[in-house]
Write a structure and sequence with these properties.
The chain is of the alpha/beta class. The chain is built from 13 helices and 17 strands. The chain has a 7-stranded parallel β-sheet with strand order 6-7-8-9-10-11-12, sandwiched between helices. A 4-stranded mixed β-sheet has the order 3-2-1-4, with no helix packed on it. The chain has a 4-stranded antiparallel β-sheet with strand order 5-13-14-15, with no helix packed on it. It binds fe (ii) ion.
Length: 429
């Protein structure tokens, strides 16, 4: 007797008509025609069953604060940072907890199973750290949060940031962050990378830095991050977030840089919605897109995961915790339009990001945790095309969120009475 069987599922790799059996929170079997009994049965009706979405880059201490204390008028990254500086002293730990919990509700409803969130450590009271440590504990049964100690104002530029960042790690924050392009000089930026990577190496932690989030082709801190990763033996544990300056770099330099990143095993986390919104703001025309070189990084063998970065905060007024929106934007900006490329964009918001975060037991296979999302779509490409409805979100073998199928009723003479958006794709088998 299983706890749950999901019947007639299509998996992201294209396998169809499979049943997924769950026992004690773990996937026990993935086979065709499982006939055993289960306490609960879900008929996937041939729809896509994927492991949960994973967001490898978010700011949960700022989310849902849009308009407090005012709007970002210029729409730039720098006004967003200034606005966040105005909000920090007037928000309480309880405010941050309440907003973060609301965001986690939304995230679960959209099929998110894990989020890596940066938390600002440039605050002598460490209000964001206190809040998100509490939230991480409160939500652990239904969503995994991984916290990054993020010195937003520069770990060297802000006089107390280093001490506060170390204190945050002592309190239980998981990952070492940084923002080298925001330090006073290129030299300080490189020095910040060195010091922060050494802290991570000493403590056995992962690193995830906001790195070169600008249009400046000479912002080359990713080179230093790759160097320090290799020097300190941190291969596989380090990610560069944003990397937007790579969009503007000289091609010859990039031909040297990407192999250095490969050698160091550094992961890349573009944030398509925010990158296309914030980059190129100082350009007239032609206006640069700003998103890093996703195709080239991927083709070189670097693990690339798309992050959402912001939802309704000082930097971005939109967003709904929908990683399919993120994949949709990343696909367009990166011109990833072949069927293989589009399917890969689904991996960039699921398996790739899970690998970057080091999630254990992730996937739809025997022995994996029974975490999955049933989408109203036939395959990953259609899931992105439709930003598909989440029919069921399953955690530990239990349905924790569900939606009715989105089927419009049509009132046209001589035409069908219903429109199911997931039934329109021509067969590509
Ligand atoms: Fe960010």
């Amino acid at each position: 007797m299983f706890d749950l069987i999901v019947k007639n599922a299509t998996l992201p790799d294209g396998r169809k008509r499979l049943d997924i059996a769950v026992k004690d929170g773990v996937i026990a079997a993935v086979e065709a025609g499982i006939t055993a009994d289960a306490k609960e049965m879900i008929d996937a009706e041939g729809h896509l069953v994927a492991p949960p979405f994973v967001d490898p880059h978010f700011h949960m201490d700022a989310t849902l604060s849009l308009g407090t204390p005012r709007m970002n008028v210029s729409g730039t990254l720098l006004e967003g940072i200034a606005l966040w500086g105005e909000l920090k002293p007037i928000q309480s730990v309880d405010d941050i907890v309440a907003r973060a919990l609301r965001y986690c509700d939304l995230a679960v409803s959209m099929g998110l199973g894990a989020i890596r969130t940066h938390v600002d450590t440039c605050d002598d009271e460490l209000k964001g750290v206190q809040a998100l440590l509490e939230v991480r504990e409160q939500v652990k049964d239904y969503i995994d949060l991984q916290l990054v100690a993020f010195p937003q104002d520069g770990v060297l530029r802000d006089p107390t940031a280093m001490a506060n960042t170390v204190r945050a790690l002592d309190m239980g924050v998981d990952v070492v962050g940084g923002i080298p392009h925001f330090e006073r000089t290129m030299a300080d930026g490189a020095e910040s990378v060195r010091q922060l990577c050494e802290i991570a190496a000493d403590r056995g932690l992962m690193v995830d830095m906001h790195c070169d989030e600008s249009d400046d082709p000479h912002s080359r801190h990713i080179e230093t991050l790759a160097y320090e990763t290799q020097r300190l033996g941190l291969q596989g544990r380090v990610a560069g977030s944003h990397l937007t300056s790579m969009h503007s770099m000289d091609n010859y330099y990039v031909s040297k840089l990407i192999p250095l990143m490969v050698e160091a095993g550094v992961h890349a986390i573009p944030n398509p919605l925010i990158n296309i919104m914030l980059q190129g703001r100082h350009d007239s025309y032609p206006k640069r897109r700003g998103q890093t070189r996703v195709r080239e990084l991927r083709d070189a063998g670097i693990t690339v995961g798309f992050g959402s970065d912001c939802v309704m905060d000082p930097w971005y007024s939109l967003g709904k915790a929908d990683m399919l929106d993120v994949a949709f934007m990343g696909l367009h900006v990166g011109q990833l339009s072949s069927r293989e490329d589009m399917a890969w964009c689904f991996e960039a918001v699921t398996t790739n990001s899970a690998k970057i975060m080091g999630l254990e037991g992730y996937g739809i296979a025997p022995g994996c945790q029974a975490n999955m999302v049933l989408l109203q779509a036939q395959d990953p490409i259609e899931a992105i095309r439709l930003r598909a409805n989440r029919l069921s979100v399953i955690r530990g073998g239990r349905v924790i969120a569900s939606n009715q199928p989105q089927i419009a009723q049509l009132a046209l003479p001589g035409r069908p009475s219903e429109v199911d958006p997931a039934s329109y794709a021509p067969s590509t088998d």
